[in-house]
Design goal:
Blueprint: E1 2-9, H1 12-21, E2 28-35, E3 52-61, H2 69-81, E4 86-88, E5 92-95, E6 98-109, E7 118-127, H3 132-140, H4 158-179, H5 185-191, E8 198-201, E9 206-212, E10 218-222, E11 225-229, E12 236-238
Amino acid sequence: MHIEFVSSLDSTNSELMRRAAAGDYRTICLVAKAQTAGRGRLGRAWLSDEHSLMFSLGMPLAPLDWSGLSLAVGVSLAESLHERIQIKWPNDLWVDGQKLAGILIETTAIQGALSTQRYTVIGVGINLEAPPAAIHQAAREAKVAPIGLRGLVPGITQEAALKRVLEPLVDAIQNFEQHGWKPYAASFAKHDALQGRAIKLSSGAAGQYAGINAQGALLLQTSAGLQTIMSHEVSVCPSKK
């Protein structure tokens, strides 16, 4: 795999999507020392600085079922980085309720390819140190501040963190393409940050977290019954109950 390093970029995901739009569908890992317009899920800004590891993997993929891809990515990252890391459905890594990392997956059609194959960009942002801007924003919004990987692995550098995660992540994505979400379900359960929690969805629905189904969808037990929530429909946060 080709690995490309840049000093600064608006967003590694945006750059690989631009390249795909121009017909470049290479398998590549694009790493930025800093991002000026990093993006998270649902259009949120990803606040980062030089004390973060930010990269995007771009590759053609054709899984039979795309469901659960972000969770499989989360499992791979958690197992590569530290045993205390948990996965908050659908695309965040936590340590003791504090956000450590985020995952953003985007796809686009490949001109002339089979309909099942799409160019897939998997963006990963990992705090090595919690960005001061993110800490200040959390304080203003009365939210829990983020955490950095150096709290678990003192002194780890961007290069060392990338070396830990990249090869296992590529292997995990290729395995997901062949076998789907099922092989990751047991490992996800060991890292599931929402077990036993009352949760609230961005739609306003609230209830008791009831795990993940066979397709990687969240199960929410409410007064009206069990609801199945797909990753593209909601964001999830623990309730204050």
